[in-house]
Amino acid sequence: MPNNCPCGSGRPYALCCEPIINGKSDAITAQELMRSRYTAFTLANVNYLMRSHHSSTRPNKERKSIEKWAKSVRWIGLNVLNSQAGEATDETGYVEFKALFMENGQLQQLHERSFFQRENGKWVYVSGTMY
């Protein structure tokens, strides 16, 4: 039985986020990109996180701290709450989600409404509003 993707899609990782993270395919929607970024956090794949971040807001100076933090927590799950636009024919979109993780023995939640935009024809993360 193949391992399910960490993003919670119920699909095998090899048929879900892996091709996007490995650069073999592009995210078709903003939600696909958001799911692949969550999965990259679970893998502490900071190279993909930087690559899938808009060039104008990419936190290059925080690369090491992002990787250290991603490795220090245990990811529990992702819950997509809603999406606005961000479909295959859109140029921008929003995805609201909650990501659960354990940090220092405490259950934590990251609740964000993320803004995505196309850059060079590909979906990228621009910014997010935390709740």
Describe the structure.
With 131 residues, this protein is an alpha+beta fold. 26% of the residues lie in helices and 36% in strands. The protein contains four helices and four strands. Strand 1 (74-85) and strand 2 (92-103) form a beta hairpin. The radius of gyration is 14 Å and the shape is globular.
> Main β-sheet: number of strands, strand sense, barrel status?
4 strands, antiparallel
Q: End-to-end distance, in Å?
A: 37 Å
CATH fold-level name: Nuclear Transport Factor 2, Chain: A
- In N-to-C order, the SSE pattern is HHHHEEEE
- Tell me the count of domains: 1
Percent range for helical residues?
Answer: 25-40%
CATH class: Alpha Beta
Class based on secondary structure composition and strand pairing: alpha+beta
Strand content of the residues, in percent? 35-45%
Which sequence of strands runs across the widest sheet?
A: 1-2-3-4
Q: Outline, from the CA principal axes? A: globular
Tally of separate helices: 4
Rg over alpha carbons: 14 Å
How many β strands by DSSP? 4
- Poorly predicted tracts of residues: none
What CATH architecture label applies? Roll
**Average pLDDT taken over every residue:** 96
